[in-house]
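anyone else get weird line breaks when pasting these?? whatever heres mine. first is seq + tokens for prot A
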Amino acid sequence: MTIADMVRILHAKILCGEDRLDTKVHTSCCSDLMSDVLAFVNEKTVLITGLTNAHVLRTADMLDLKCLVFARGKIPSEDLVEQADEQGLVVITTPETAFTTCGLLYEAGLRGVPIEWPESEARL
């Protein structure tokens, strides 16, 4: 899937990175807790969130993420969008809730970031 596909699926508005819409993405994660993103994301991916603060941008930079999707129609400040563009991120906003955003993308073939569970915390 490309980011352009995501924009179409989510009826999203592009805030920056129009020149990078052909970037392919294979996984996504959704969280408002950047500590969880840092703990579980280990590959270049898409972050779906409702947070519009600088922590999101720092997390994206640390993990070399490709795209930020702001759910619920959230729009970050112009400064954050400018910094994201300088980092090479595509930033989009969708009117959909985070849950619906994830569902629509999953239905279209985008999968979650695989998590390796320790033996002591194996999934039931």
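and prot B, same format (seq, then tokens)
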Amino acid sequence: MNHSIQSADRATHLKIVIIALVAGAVLTTFGTSLRPSSNFIQTVHVTKAGQPTMVSSSQASLVR
């Protein structure tokens, strides 16, 4: 039994690729099934900016 992917044979590499493809398909199907229906309407709330303000601080410390 080889414990390294570098020394594995062609069949082992093929098994790994197939398992990865199946896992990707399962995750994609699961993620797609979680999407909301097409009747879902999303509302947007707009917030307008107020007056500009200046923020300053005199507690700055200087390190030399």
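btw re prot B: The chain has one helix and no strands. The chain has a mean pLDDT of 80.
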